[in-house]
Amino acid sequence: MTEPMTEPMTEPMTEPTTAPGAPAPVTDPVPVTPPGRWAAELDRRAPAAMEVPAGRVVVVAAHPDDETLGAAGYLRAVHAAGGSVSLVVATDGEAAFPASGPDAQAALATARRAELDAALTALGLPAASVTWLGLPDSGLAEHEDALVEALREPLREADLVLAPWVEDPHPDHAAAGRAADRAAPVRTHRFGYPIWMWPWLSPDDPVVPWSTATGFALDDAARQAKADAIARFTTQLAPAPDGGPPILPPEVLEHFAGDLELFFRVPSERSAPADRFAELYAADPDPWQTRDSWYEQRKRAVVAACLPRAHYRHIAEPGCGTGQLTKVLAARADRLSASDYTEAAVEATRAALHDARGPRASAAGDARGPQAPLCDARGPRAPADGDARGPQAPLSDARGPRAPAAGDARGPRASGVAVVRAALPEAASLPHGVDLVMLSEVLYYLAPEAIDAVTERVVEVLEPDGDLVLVHWRGWPAEAPQDAEATHARVLADPRFRTLVEHRDEEFLLHVLRLR
């Protein structure tokens, strides 16, 4: 780890602040937050468990040792689970001691590279790939765009990217976190790991994003391996060359000796892009196994059972996907307006309705627009025998073991079924005069302001006492700006709706609302 400020400091645990009325920054001591305060808060909050994938994990570090301090136990577990681990280190950490001259800094850079190799060996990861970028230490913020470009290729095929937390109180860490978020593909799960948060901030600091926190528990063997790996960074543990305190004094190291590593999910700030969904359908005509997975069959049955009315005059179903729920809804309505942004999904729904021997779905009104896609994409397909993992599996896009196909609809009864290409909140996706709007696995792919726009459109088109159904998987798709809980909470806060039904289980969240 490099000294945690860009300006030279006389003590490793200080930060510049501006005193009231002072003409220039002054340096005040920063007390180390006791580890016990964090431990108590972690016990109280019990963050969801961080899933260990058997895929490609890429760790971005601002300096050699960041990855070990923040994620050593987790990386060890990924390797044990059969996943691949690779590192991208932005700087050599040569400016850890700012008063050192060029020769001393060059020697320190060489030493720190060797320390990282030794630490990976101690973790049982001697074959982990390490890419060294050689950007200036204590200057990443000024080279953030260059870092973004350098990260694009290493992150291109990653399933999961770990990078320093973007709010970590070290400018290099924050810059590395921002750059990784910008460079990572939209389909990639992104998490930040804190370093200087532990000693410098407190658990009640409003900047700590507890709502996105996940934790990975370390057993005794993992804790010992992590301690052994940290011990390899001798340049950071020994006193400074001028006799000053080490970068990592004992009171700081104590924060990294606990039994939990903490990660903060980095959600997308924008609605999921159209090309992501087209890409998924191009790879597989049923990307989420909607026809035969038990998760999908059970969800459809629960949704159908929770509809308050036996029959509706006009149902709107944006994000119809492959049309499996559309068939169920068609049997409960006089008229059904289904839509999806992706052409492949529209064609799949029309075929599903035709196969159900109902009325031929109309191709009329093929509306198109620039809004975000609304098919229910949830990431790569899971293995056919994957276990359902529930809400504490933030990296899994699987929703239960595959089951034999079962007919859960008897064929459309609606006198008029139209399937069009449209995006929320376009008029074609939510036509006027509907008495039921079905939003299944679509809304969490929209940015918060887009959710608000959809809510307004629903209120505009829904008849008095009409119903709105929200149902979403309780995991968190990589492309989604928020999870099911946050998505539903945003709509539930609208006083124009009252709740009729709430169903919550380990796999999905369901609300049926009625317009007041």
Q: Would you summarize the structure shown here?
A:
The chain is of the alpha/beta class and 516 residues long. The chain has helices spanning 35-45, 66-80, 102-122, 144-155, 171-183, 197-200, 220-230, 234-237, 250-253, 274-283, 294-306, 324-330, 343-355, 448-461, 484-492; strands at residues 14-17, 26-29, 48-49, 56-61, 84-91, 129-135, 160-164, 189-193, 213-217, 260-265, 312-318, 333-340, 416-421, 434-440, 462-473, 497-504, 508-515. The longest helix has 21 residues, at 102-122.
Could you please describe the fold and organization of this structure?
The protein is an alpha/beta fold. It is 31% helix and 21% strand. It has 15 helices and 17 strands. The chain has an eight-stranded mixed β-sheet, sandwiched between helices. Helix 5 links the parallel strand 7 and strand 8. Helix 2 packs across helix 7, helix 3 packs antiparallel against helix 7 and helix 4 packs across helix 5. About 16% of the residues have low confidence.
Task: Describe this protein with a few key phrases.
single chain, 516 residues, alpha/beta, eight-stranded mixed beta sheet, seven-stranded mixed beta sheet, 15 helices, 17 strands, 31% helix
Average pLDDT reading: 87
Beta strand %: 15-25%
Strands in their spatial order, largest beta sheet: 3-9-10-8-7-4-5-6
The count of helical stretches stands at 15
